[in-house]
TrEMBL record, chain A:
Protein name, entry field: sn-glycerol-3-phosphate transport system permease protein UgpE
Recorded topology in the membrane: Multi-pass membrane protein
Assembly and binders: The complex is composed of two ATP-binding proteins (UgpC), two transmembrane proteins (UgpA and UgpE) and a solute-binding protein (UgpB).
Residues spanning the membrane: 12-31, 81-105, 112-133, 145-166, 187-210, 247-268
Positions of the ABC transmembrane type-1 domain: 77-268
SUPFAM superfamilies: MetI-like
Role of this protein: Part of the ABC transporter complex UgpBAEC involved in sn-glycerol-3-phosphate (G3P) import. Probably responsible for the translocation of the substrate across the membrane.
Automatic annotation (TrEMBL), chain B:
Residues in ABC transporter domain copies: 4-235
Keyword list, A-Z: ATP-binding, Cell inner membrane, Cell membrane, Membrane, Nucleotide-binding, Sugar transport, Translocase, Transport
SMART domains: AAA (SM00382)
Protein name: Sn-glycerol-3-phosphate import ATP-binding protein UgpC
Presence of the UniProt keyword Nucleotide-binding in the record: yes
Cell inner membrane listed as a keyword: yes
CDD domains: ABC_MalK_N
Amino acid sequence: MVENRPFAQFMAYLTLALGVVIVAFPVYLAVMASTFDTATIINGNMPLVPGNQADENYTRTLLYGGMHARQPVGGMMLNSMIMALGIAIGKILISILSAFAVVYFKFPFRKTAFWIIFITLMLPVEVRIYPTYKIVADLGLLDTYTGLVMPLIASATGTLLFRQFFMTIPDELLEASKIDGAGAFRFFKDTLLPLSMTTIAALFVIQFIYGWNQYLWPLLITTKSSMQTIVIGIKMMITTTDALTEWNVAMTTAVLAMLPPVLVVIFMQRLFVKGLVETEK
Amino acid sequence: MAGVTLDTVRKIYAGNVEAVKGVSLGIEDGSFCVLVGPSGCGKSTLLRMIAGLETISGGEVKIGDRVVNQVEPADRDIAMVFQNYALYPHMSVYDNMAYGLKNRGTPKDEIEKRVNEAARILAIETFLARKPRQLSGGQRQRVAMGRAIVRKPQVFLFDEPLSNLDAKLRVQMRVEIKRLQRALGVTSIYVTHDQVEAMTLSDKLVVMSGGQIEQVGTPSEVYRRPETRFVATFIGSPPMNILPGQVEGPGRVSVGGQSIAVTDMREGLIPGSAIEVGLRPEDVQAGGVGTSSLTMDVDFVEELGATQLFHGKVAGAEFIVQASTGQLPADTRKLTLAVDPGNVHLFDPQTTKRLGRV
């Protein structure tokens, strides 16, 4: 379509720019707030240009934490990172293998197995939180990384995604592999895995962010402050008691909490697009 | 190299659907055998059973002297070319061809030698580093054949390999497949629904219908002397005309009251009994005068360039006649058809079997 209507174009840009501003301003505010001391923020007249406390805020927050939550945010970030990576990688491993089994192997109760996996879609952590907590507690997994990661791995989204993808791969590819002397495992490694790379990337992004942003589950099962994740850390920074909230530390923590998901999206998006362009079955 | 022998091979799918109903067939070493038939006739199933991609419900499949019923596809020493090529999209052309050899533990330099040789034969040397998606349909088809050639198998299996190509390329690839098979001398089994492909490629033509073999023979045998009405109407284009007729006596039948002489006619047929008379559109002489003749009412004419097809009715049945362009005016309404007694095919209306000389 050839179109040359300057006014319409201007309006389109204006609308988009407005949207960006609405979304971006709070983020900008948080970044700015992380560069001032507490007093400047508290007095209500925080300037919109960067202050000079950035170095001190970030060093202090990362290494020592705030007054109320005396836990270095660096450690929280490590916990969050372990949890998010554990969930993303664990889920990809489990779901690609289970989808492989469900799609390519004929075994008794295959349909049943698939439907059982499917049903777990309706049971996110929040719904099954009490029994899950009970099991994790009985297994002595409270305050452990295993306890943080494992219950969140078990759900059907990944399996479904891979199953849908595997169904689009023509049967002839499997048959050609068979004639070429590749067994089930070789077919998986040499053909299925390379073809699934974009799906894996997509799932990784989704699951990493899902894991990183978990609030309820880590809140429940971590009691030791050394096991806290950064999302919980933010909450701890903002006190509701009569003590003064260290807004600069809270904002610094918030900015730090934003970074890894943003980086994952930026980095993986390249892989995404590359994959989308290159994919052909 | 080896021939392939099928002994009452059956395929029964779940729900008791019999897709292949006891097929026996011997394919000589080095020959080119084409299985042809309409869709759903069981030809692809039969091929896939030979390949080992379908289990065999009954009977025996032998490659050479070895019964392969329970042998894995990879160990049957066969190579297959699929309709949609089934190339590995993420591998280069070279890797696509080398994959099967790699899995067998062939030494690297041997793989390289064989792939390069196959690439040379197929003229795809310049594409070896490319991915399949960067190739045209014809080039992909060549790679798929290259993948089969490098294995140096005892049998090539082709499952409608040309149906995804456009008409021009199809003719070109058809010639190449034939040339390649001649050069390599590998037993080949080729499945198609295209009767032109079937006629041109095969040493041995197998016409199938409803899970059974209708006729086996050389292309010219099948064309000249179809054993059943199905074969008669399936091979040949436009299809053979079938007219209702009656036995008059030895060597004579009548169609709509007009008497025709027949060379190839079973003895001892009862005069007056019904019979089906088959005439190929290209075998009757429009406007000619012969020992026997039929009259035809023309409905319309199709122009094909070099030839014309006259559509109409003879003795109340649909009839098509092929004539050279310019031989007859296009507005002809009535035609006299001269019939050579040697070109008349007779079929039993009940069994649809040929009623020729025994």
